[in-house]
Amino acid sequence: MERNTPSPVVSSSAHRRGLFRENEPYAQGWLATGGPHEIFYEECGTPDGKPCVILHGGPGGAINPTMRRFFDPSRWRMALFDQRGCGKSRPNASLDDNTTWSLIEDIERLRVHLGVEKWTVFGGSWGSTLALAYAITHPDRVDGLVLRGIFLLTERELRWFYQDGASILFPDAWARFTAPIPVAERGDLMSAYHRRLTSSDRAVQAEAAAAWSQWEGDTISIRGPEARPSKFNEIDFAVAFARIECHFFANGGFFDEDGWILKNIEKIRKIPGWIVQGRFDVVTPMESAWALKTAWPEARFDIVWDAGHASTEPGIVDGLVRATDQALRG
User: Fold this and answer.
1) Which domains does the chain have, with CATH numbers?
2) How many whole angstroms separate alpha carbon 195 and alpha carbon 238?
């Protein structure tokens, strides 16, 4: 099918909107999966609001209170959950039965548990990957997609960030990232890190996890290292984050083929979509967002010229808040 050239909206720095007020969960619990995992979830906003599910990044990240604040709590019924091995979900840092497809099953399991027919799906970075994969698999359960920092989990993207690409822009941070790996193994850093992060030696895991997490933290925002999430400095979080992320990436996201998302994009083209992308995103460069918009011309495409990857950069906040307000109207 012929594709149209994307016509992006370029975000202005004037009259930007901020996050909605802080709000606390009105319900929370753990959801059994029928296997070794129990998934922690919470509900926020108003029980009578429009349903949405908020997907955190990583893989290996966790939900946090800021994620609730992209939605008007008086109008949305928000569901958030820690993915397998992450955050408060149990067991922590487990790789057992932890794949993209098991996470998609968890999203469906949570939807049924909460009695939701259809919902808006919100995700950034890896959350955008998972949101797209879920929508492709269950398009009849999605009434909107709000996406940030598009990551299609392709070999090209992984090589850019973990082998040859982003290193050119951040040679100082790259030196810290490669330091734990002997020169002889640096031709395949993903495999080298995977061996260490799956080691039975906790000290080996911890050293690799600290370097892996710092690399992402150092590159996440144009505001510099001070924008690095504080959790990256906590060793338990770093080990879970790095182990799970590397596990997914070393396995190509568990997709059947490279480029699986774009090859199946026709299944979601009737779903309303909003894409918010930082122009200077180094973690998930704009090429992927551009490719997604080209394949899905119906989606709104908002380029934020003074932003990188972090969801908390002012222009990204503005774009996402405007998107969730528009999603209320369908």
Assistant:
1) 9-153+254-328 (3.40.50.1820), 156-253 (no CATH)
2) 16
Mark whether 125 is an active-site residue.
yes
- Select which of 281, 288, 311, 318 is catalytic: 281
Taking only the tens place, the pLDDT of each residue in 52-94 is 999 999 999 999 999 999 999 999 999 999 999 999 999 999 9
Strands across the sheet containing 273-278: 9-11, 300-304, 273-278, 142-150, 119-125, 50-55, 76-81, 38-45, 27-32
Q: What Å distances lie between residue 84 and 41, 52, 66, 94, 321, CA to CA?
A: 11, 19, 20, 7, 27
Known catalytic residue at 194 = no
| Candidates 125, 213, 221, 311; catalytic one | 125
State whether the Cα torsion 123-128-130-136 is positive or negative. positive
pTM over 0.70: yes
Would you call 82 a catalytic residue per the annotation? no
Q: Which of 288, 309, 311, 318 is catalytic?
A: 309
**Distance set, CA 285 to CA 161, 206, 217, 280, 309 (Å):** 9, 28, 16, 7, 8
